[in-house]
From TrEMBL:
It comes from Raphanus sativus. Residues 1-19 form the signal peptide. It comes from the Eukaryota. GO terms for biological process: proteolysis. GO terms for cellular component: vacuole. This is Uncharacterized protein LOC108856922 isoform X2. Keywords: Glycoprotein, Hydrolase, Protease, Signal. The keyword Signal applies. Residues 29-40 have a biased composition (Polar residues). One of its GO terms (molecular function) is serine-type exopeptidase activity.
Amino acid sequence: MASHLVLLLIISFVFSTSSSSPSPRFPRQTLQSRARTQPSRGGDRNSYRYETKYFSQQLDHFSFADLPKFSQRYLINSDHWTGASELGPIFLYCGNEGDIEWFATNSGFIWEIAPKFGALLVFPEHRYYGESMPYGNREEAYKNATTLSYLTTEQALADFAVFVTDLKRNLSAEASPVVLFGGSYGGMLAAWMRLKYPHIAIGALASSAPILQFEDLVPPQTFYDIVSNDFKRESSSCFSTIKDSWDAIIAEGEKENGLQQLSKTFHFCRALNSTDDLSGWLDSAYSYLAMVDYPYAADFMMPLPGHPIKEVCRKIDGASSDASILERIYAGVSVYYNYTGKVGCFELDDDPHGLDGWNWQACTEMVMPMSSSQENSMFTTYDFNYSSYKEDCWNTFGVNPRPRWVTTELGGHDIETTLKSFGSNIIFSNGLLDPWSGGSVLKNLSSTIVALVTEEGGHHLDLRPSTPEDPKWLVEQREAEIRLIQEWIRTYRLEKVAQFSLLKSSW
């Protein structure tokens, strides 16, 4: 994760209606702002060894039309793989809506456990993101609704299935078990792939995966209520200042030269066109801060201190007594946008992580209704208005959303009965500080559909690299995940041995 993770999980496609605000993506559906600085990669790319390769992928897996193929990028590391003869496992990270290197270098947990399991690591990139562009380049791929029509979750899942099947064949490792990993949208893909292609992978770790954030499966105000509560638990006065700031922004914007003054107060590189731009910029920061309210310093989205919401509220509450409400807000939000102090001014339209394709996905399949309640939310009150949402999607892309398609194709209604009856070997891990946790599975559904929930956890924190500052509960969460994955692989191998013995006895 929100004008409309993830995980996973920003604002460039802004719905211009007062009745329905766009909802956050993974990290957000709309990428509204970035400081003018180099993209934050999160992990040190040089600390992970991998080869970059490309796989010739079908553009459309569900027709026999003569369409051009495209090169799907993937990262691979075999340093610790025990090989096909030992049934060495393959750990596959389901690529998110962005550059695969960004996610690979922010998924240290997978790298760290590879030696323990003797695993081959592969990180296939999601189509239409990073370098995996159909039609040869981004400009052609994003040209119109026709060229974008192959950017769907079904096609992406099929990509992963075809890719890993071909990889195993080339390595003569058809019997090697595959374990899926993913955070935010990638976590959703991991869970869905385990359900849709159970013969491809033996299990999935779906971290911060809001597979229930559709239709009326969860209350639409859940996301913003969690964001707001994250701030309120740090400081009720901070919560109230933010809640009051929206009216102050509008009032200032209505003054003569008000937009210029707001631009100056918040240090924008160019003058604001409307107060909505500023509100979206702030909304984006608060939502991200809730997602990455990690217990130690990190730079997944931006360089941030540990417990960044605490630091934001310290700035807001600790401002001088003569500081205006908007000056207090600027001091607080600068923790997110300029913690390093190196940014001179802020841009509203940068997309350093290449996440813009999510705008299309949100206007087709990934319709996640969100609203902001008057009672519990520190954001402006609004209700989700599907008619407005639909109109904006049509004006932007010339398409109408299909809000019920995800639950039709991949499930969601009566999830407990469905997964208990037809699913197995899925870990849903969530931290309750993460606003996307409200749309995920938060209780065990069976002995093998397990929910690991932590009170203080943020957005797919368990997938991040371990640090000396890791709290005990995070260490224990990862240890539980390792035990579960070990059991999946042990059971798989025992069944393979039993099948071989039975076959041998029949000779």
